[in-house]
Write a structure and sequence with these properties.
477 residues, Growth Hormone, Chain: A, 79% helix, disordered N terminus
């Protein structure tokens, strides 16, 4: 209920008036007529069910991202080397199936919809695949390793099926762009709510164990994802060439230079986003209590929830590009401040961490909106709207960067002398954990600053492209 209420409150920010202030050219050039909230094409229950699916999906994403590495090394007993190799090989396969899935989504049309049939299937299979991944099977080491490979790869494939259709669904639920942005904004908020829910994971685990704790999260995820298949409607039918092939779909992807440029920077941030992975190691080794991860994650995520409602206003004032640049600079400075202030004083550590994470999360909350802008650019230069593969690139980069982040953390832990399942770590290992948490993210944000000098799309240019794309659709009808 709390998550739902937060979603409703933040959704009011994404009203027509807010959209008009964000994109004034739409009014001046007559692309959109003034509408009241009562004229929204989607119903309140439908919008909340879309938000609910995002919430459930993000919970299922956050749990393994934050805790799977720790589960493998500290509970199952896999070595750092085997865990690192597992994550890398699984993502090589992911590199193959993710873009293919996006192309399949773009190509396929079912009688009951283009995107909803995919989401109906994963509503039931995604929670189950997560649960099996957090089972510690009895048997020799090689059996444990094989089981980890099988369950991780299956989970990754099922998750791939969920992501591109979910983002793409917002483009066919309504023909109003401001309403689409409103729907997509739920995704970023849902991710923050999911992260908050994961803050109590280790505390619950201390009482009921790993598998039962994951089972509780899986049940919650299933219940909030379930309503979408009964409430959502695909209203918009886009005109598309009848002879579009998989080859053409991929060609359009690689012609979309700004989409590819942007995701280089986004991937750099994702690869160096070490806090969530290292928080449980830090709490256990440096603070001496793994349940302290609840405090760390809670304190650092709450500012993101507070910040989320003001994001449209910040975009209106600065634009997505300038906002990304300024938050990246602030993050770099705060990472340095975090390292030198240390964690001997827990209150100072938590305060600095809260502000730092708020700045770090701003570019991550904007990525779906950058993708939507790049889809308009792709349609403008090619005449074809290939949202499925564009959002699959978003999914692919998100998951691949998470895997590389896991790998980076594990490699650095090994380099600093971390020992799996040890009662106490060396001074060098403890300092290494602190470096990984506080300083490593600087590299990703430096790269994003470089990327933003190359990326040329802004709100005004996208508005002009949307007008032209709208005219092309009208001409085809």
């Amino acid at each position: 209920m709390l998550a739902a209420r937060i979603l409703v409150e933040v959704s009011t920010i994404w009203s027509y008036d807010g959209f008009m202030e964000l994109y004034p050219n739409y009014v001046r050039k007559g692309l959109v007529n003034k509408m009241e909230k009562s004229s929204l094409q989607t119903g309140k229950v439908e919008r909340l069910s879309y938000a609910g699916f995002f919430l459930g999906q993000n919970i299922i994403y956050v749990i393994p991202f934050q805790f799977l590495t720790y589960f493998y090394t500290e509970y199952v007993g896999l070595t750092l080397g085997d865990t690192t190799l597992l994550l890398l090989l699984a993502k090589v396969w992911d590199a193959i199936n993710d873009p293919i899935m996006g192309a399949v989504v773009d190509k396929c049309n079912f009688k009951k919809g283009k995107y909803l049939p995919w989401l109906k299937v994963v509503t039931y299979t995604l929670p189950v695949s997560l649960l099996f991944m957090f089972v510690n099977v009895d048997g020799p080491y090689i059996i444990k390793l094989i089981y980890a490979y099988l369950t991780y790869i299956v989970f990754d494939m099922v998750y791939t099926i969920s992501d591109s259709p979910l983002f793409s669904l917002s483009t066919v639920m309504t023909s109003a762009t401001y309403e689409r942005d409103k729907l997509m904004s739920y995704g970023r908020l849902a991710a923050a709510v999911a992260a908050i829910s994961s803050a109590v994971f280790m505390s619950v685990k201390a009482n009921v164990g790993w598998t039962w704790t994951v089972g509780i999260y899986c049940l919650i995820s299933f219940l909030v994802m379930l309503p979408l298949q009964f409430t959502a409607k695909e209203r918009v039918k886009y005109q598309r060439s009848e002879d579009i092939t998989f080859l053409k779909i991929f060609q359009y992807l690689f012609k979309n230079k700004y989409l590819l440029i942007y995701y280089v920077g986004y991937m750099a941030i994702g690869i160096t986003n070490t806090l969530q992975i290292m928080a449980v190691y830090f709490a256990d080794s440096n603070l001496g209590d793994e349940t302290m991860v609840t405090v760390i994650m809670g304190v650092t995520i709450v500012p993101v929830i507070i910040l989320a409602p003001f994001l449209p206003m910040m975009i209106r004032k600065f634009g997505k590009k300038k906002l990304t640049v300024s938050s990246s600079i602030a993050t770099i400075v705060l990472c340095i401040v975090q390292y030198f202030t240390g964690y001997d004083n827990l209150l100072i550590f938590l305060c600095v961490a809260a502000v730092r994470v708020a700045c770090m999360e701003i570019p991550l909350m904007l990525y779906g909106m950058f993708t939507a802008d790049c889809i308009e650019y792709g349609a403008y230069i090619s005449g074809e709207r290939t949202a499925g593969i564009a959002f699959s690139l978003q999914t692919f980069v998100t998951k691949l960067s998470a895997a590389f982040c896991n790998t980076l953390c594990l490699v650095l832990l090994s380099a600093f002398g971390y020992v799996e399942m040890a009662a106490k770590q060396s001074t060098q290992a403890l300092h290494g954990i602190w470096i990984i948490m506080s300083l490593v993210p600087i590299g990703g944000f430096v790269i994003m600053l470089i990327i933003m000098r190359i990326y040329k799309l802004d709100e005004e240019k996208v508005a002009e492209m949307m007008i032209e794309n709208h005219k092309k659709v009208q001409d085809m009808e």
